[in-house]
Amino acid sequence: MPTIKAGEIAGEVSQKLFDSTQVRWPPEELLKELSNAQRSIVGRVRAAYAKNEIIDLVAGTKQSIPAGGEMFLKAIRNMGSDKNTPGIVPRRIPVSTMDNNSPDWHEHTPSATVKNVVYDLADPKTFYVHPPQPSSNRGSLQILYSASPPELTDENDVIGLDDTWKEELFHFVMARCLAKQSGEGDPEGASVYWKLFIEGVEAKKAGYQFASPAQFAEMLDK
Predict the structure, then answer these.
(1) pLDDT score, position 100
(2) 143, β-bridge pairs
(3) 219 band by pLDDT with thresholds 50, 70 and 90
(4) How far is Cα 219 from Cα 213, in angstroms, rounded to an integer?
(5) Are 141 and 78 in contact (CB under 8 A)?
(6) How far apart are CA 81 and CA 34, in angstroms?
């Protein structure tokens, strides 16, 4: 659970930039860059800001992740029509496999229990369930999906990402500040911090590896 406040990272950046009074780099600008940093990390590691929720399913096969979501990651388990009854874990199947093996799968006999979750990487906010959900007494699923971190607008706001991302957030903001410094900026310093940011993100990426739709598709292609 995140515990670090935005002001803590902003303060460290200000100290490093010899701007402890935050005159050159006011708090609102540092907060804006911290928000950009969070989005940049999530854009590279979708599971860095993931939500685990139980959602009601709608009739038919086509389903959507909750508002504010960016990408469907995985279905964890069926949760019954009451959203409180754990059930089977659906299998993950790429849409191309489902379409080739059973072209009429959208028209199969409805059932509230999801046996297969079908996805198309070209439509990351949508997923499909099989069998189709009935028109009434529908089921629910516990899912994991990537979302967009909330905007940081106050130094007391807690960052949305896990505390382990603190260094990467710091490096990102330093890189952006040095790149935009008055005059011609400090491109060499900005480059050093940007490299640290990318290296840190790539190093942590392995810790978030699980068979998400994109990763599962990659494995099937090998």
Answers:
(1) 94
(2) 53, 75
(3) very low
(4) 10
(5) yes
(6) 40
pLDDT, residue 120, reads 86
Strand partners, 69: 147
This prediction has a pTM of: 0.82
pLDDT, mean of residues 13-18: 94
* pLDDT digit string, tens, across residues 26-40: 999 999 999 999 999
Rounded Cα distance between 102 and 5, Å, is 51
**What would the two tokens of residue 210 be?**
């699980």
Q: What is the spatial order of strands in the sheet that 50-56 belongs to? A: 50-56, 140-147, 69-78
Cα angle 113-118-124, degrees, rounded to a multiple of 5: 125
SS (H, E, C) the chain: CCCCEHHHHHHHHHHHCCCCCCCCCCHHHHHHHHHHHHHHHHHHCHHHHEEEEEEECCCEEEEECCCCEEEEEEEEEECCCCCCCCCCCCEEEEHHHHHHHCCCHHHCCCCCCCCEEEECCCCCCEEEEEEEECCCCCCEEEEEEEECCCCCCCCCCECCCCHHHHHHHHHHHHHHHHHCCCCCCCHHHHHHHHHHHHHHHHHHHHHHCCCCHHHHHHHHHC
| Tens-digit pLDDT profile for residues 57-75 | 999 999 999 998 999 999 9
* Domain residue ranges in the chain: 6-46+150-221, 48-147
Looking at residue 143, its pLDDT comes to 97
